[in-house]
Amino acid sequence: MGEKRTVELDLATPGWDASGQPARVPLGVAEAAGEIGAVEGGIGSEHLLLNLGPQHPATHGVLRLVVELDGEVVVRVIPHIGYLHSGFEKLGEYRFYNQIIPLTDRTDYLAPMANNVCLAMGAEKLMGIELTERCKVLRVIACEMSRIISHLVWLGTTAVDLGAFTPFLWTFQERERIYDLQEAWTGARLTTSLTRVGGLMADIPDGFEAGLRASCKRLPQVLDEAERMLTNNAIWCARTQGIGILSAEDAINFSMSGPMLRASGVDYDVRKDRPYLDYETYDFDVPIGENGDVYDRYLVRLEEMRQSVRIIEQALDRLPDGPINVDDPRVILPPKTAAMNDMESMIFHFKQVMEGVRAPVGEAYFAIENGKGELGTYFVSDGTAKPVRWRIRPPSFINLSALPKMAEGHLIADLIAINASVDIVLGEIDR
Amino acid sequence: MRREFGDKIGRALESCGDTIVYVDAGRARAVLAWLKETPDQEYNYLTDITAVEYRDAELPMEVVYLLFSLRRKVQLCVKIALPKDGDLEVDSVVPLWQGANWLEREVFDMFGITFRDHPDLRRILMWETYSEGHPLRKDFPLRGRLSRSEQVRRALHANPEAHYSMEELSIAESFNDLPEDMRQRLAQGERDRIPELGGAPGDG
Questions:
Q1: How far apart are the first and last CA of chain B?
Q2: Percentage of residues in chain A with pLDDT exceeding 90?
Q3: DSSP state, A16?
Q4: Of A69, A379, B17, B168, whose Cβ has the fewest other Cβ atoms within 10 Å?
Q5: A278 to chain B nearest CA, in Å?
Q6: Residue whose C-alpha is closest to residue A83's, from A115, A53, A50
Q7: Contact call for residues A201 and A193 (beta carbons, < 8 A)
Q8: Do B125 and A430 touch (CB under 8 A)?
Q9: Which residues on B lie below 8 Å from A400 (Cβ)?
């Protein structure tokens, strides 16, 4: 029998309290307690390099983040993008203006109708086309529907990222109902290609109005339910409040836009500040946050959906009769029967299909407020039917560029929350 | 503006309701800083940075800054013309707006315009070792410089172990403990060691 040995265990406790229980150490001072255990060379002096993505559910697409970690604390984030780069802007230089519209479906694929509208409005600004009243109202409806589905996806996926699965099912169910309407209108759920330069591809079908009104009634209830799950939920608050704070100055300095900018307290909404499509005649509020953290972004987006419902209801109330397309055979294709029956219409049809619509020499920047932020279209024309340069001002690309600023110093788990709060869509970031 | 900077300001014009001002490349940053900070200008929000190359090869390339004043609600487009035979170089505006960081990287990636004093001027949408040029230039063919088969061949020879840039690898201190050959392979980048054509089909 050998000699009895005493094994000393480092319990990470500095001792025992009066009642004989191990004294608790606050987490922050664990290092001081470590001296007792005195591991040779110290523990955790190395920084860890962690690769997140490009195939990772919490990166919302093919975003890749290389993260330098000190323990659980994020020291540095290096985002890598470009995995979905498809050269849309280059392709656009080889196409007629109307042929670019299908490309815009695929940039921000969570809100395709707003993208279609933005592109058509850019080309119309360049060509100096005045839209019909009915077309303007229908485009407002399309933009607001897009904002709602975009925010619903955001709410659902962010809740999943932070561990709440149920709101995801509710929001996606509601989104699917709006997709049904979108499909009835355009024939497709995602690749809508709704607009044409000077008008729309199609008028709304029968029953669309009633369906949208029913949706507008149901949506606030769904939002109430989701809010009951999240807004006062202790876990949700702990995971989002005070996380990823961006001050108003920083938000402007980083060229943020949309809910990201407004959550930081900057009152800038393209619909109010540079109105288009007669947005100045609609009665709606722009929610502004105070703290610029993840929680405020959540509140701002929730309120934006409610305001979108208000706008849609007003738009449906005022929806005028009349044509959806401008009366200009150089821009809009003549009706098929006319093209088959009279000479002049056929010539216009032929010229448009073969030569495209010519834009005057010049350039135009046009911005709309979509769900992610300020979405811009910048066209430069040299007088031919194809643009010299087509540029998308990608809101989530610019919003994502502030991710390192927001995430550094937080825990790795908070990085997921912050990244989710940016509301990125990689189709638009990589273009 | 002309009072402040004299002949450094080129022509000003209006297109579709947008005001465009041409600025001398050397003074661009000073002009933009003045526009940002002067109280009655206050163009404090940088909307976008991009570049334009015209189909007419005689025309210079242009760097385009879209500014917006959040208080006055006015937009201004500032342009720098860069003759193609000169240096394609302008001053970076990252010291003025942090948001310019990625936008300038994209312009560099797509047009090959260099931004002086940019903190981190790397390619952003294309991968770092991409060597075919700058895709949005007019002399770049729509389908890329390489044939489809060559692109596939290079993709098949990509080094799947090279996931990190050298900068990132230097973070991981254990990188230096790796065996020499592994370190070299990692450091070599994605598409460097592509064997020359000439072997029998199906090689490699």
A1: 62
A2: 40
A3: B
A4: B17
A5: 17
A6: A53
A7: yes
A8: yes
A9: 102
Strands (E), A332-409: 362-370, 373-381, 389-393
Is B98–A254 a contact, with Cβ atoms under 8 angstroms apart? yes
Task: Verify whether the Cβ–Cβ distance A82 to B124 is below 8 Å.
Answer: yes
Listed by start position, the domains of chain B span: 2-116, 146-204
HEC-encoded secondary structure of A224-265: HHHHHHHCCCHHHHHHHCCCCCCCHHHHHHCCCCCHHHHHCC
The CATH number of domain A80-423 is 3.40.50.1820: no
Per-residue pLDDT reduced to its tens digit, B72-129 = 888 889 999 888 888 888 989 998 898 899 999 999 999 989 998 888 888 888 877 7
Among candidates B87, B57, B48, B112, which has minimal Cα distance to A367? B48
Residues in chain B: 204
**pTM of the prediction?**
0.82
CATH code for B2-116? 3.30.460.80
- Kindly report, residue by residue over A41-77, the tens digit of the pLDDT: 555 557 777 888 788 777 788 888 888 888 888 888 8
Residue type, B46: L
Subunit contact B99:A253, Cβ cutoff 8 A: yes
Q: How many CB pairs under 8 A join A and B?
A: 128
Dist. CA B21–CA A248, nearest whole Å: 29
Please, are residues A131 and A198 in contact by the beta-carbon 8 Å criterion? Answer: yes
Contact A304, A262 (CB under 8 A): no
* One-letter amino acid for residue B125 of the chain: L
The span from the CA of B97 to the CA of A405, in Å, is 13
How wide is the angle at C-alpha A326 spanned by C-alphas A322 and A332, nearest 5°?
Answer: 125
Sorting pLDDT into bands at 50, 70 and 90, what band is A375?
very high
Domain positions in chain A: 1-45, 80-423
CA atoms within 13 A on the CB side of A48: 12
Give A243 to chain B, closest Cα distance, Å. Answer: 21
Give pLDDT, residue A118: 93
Residues A228-239: b if buried by 16+ CB within 10 A, e if exposed? eebeebeebeeb
Which of A90, A99, A271, A279 has the highest number of chain B CBs within 10 A, making it the mutation to test binding with B?
A90
Phi, psi of B170 (to 5 degrees): -65, -20
Substitution target from B13, B14, B15 for chain A, most A beta carbons within 10 A: B15
Average pLDDT over residues B137-159: 82
Please tell me the distance in Å from B1's CA to the nearest CA on chain A: 22
3-state DSSP: chain A helix, strand, coil percent, rounded to 5?
50, 10, 40
Is the backbone peptide bond immediately before A54 cis, with ω within 30 degrees of 0? yes
Most trustworthy range by pLDDT among A25-29, A167-171, B146-150 = A167-171
Whether residue A14 is preceded by a cis peptide bond, meaning omega within 30 degrees of 0, is no
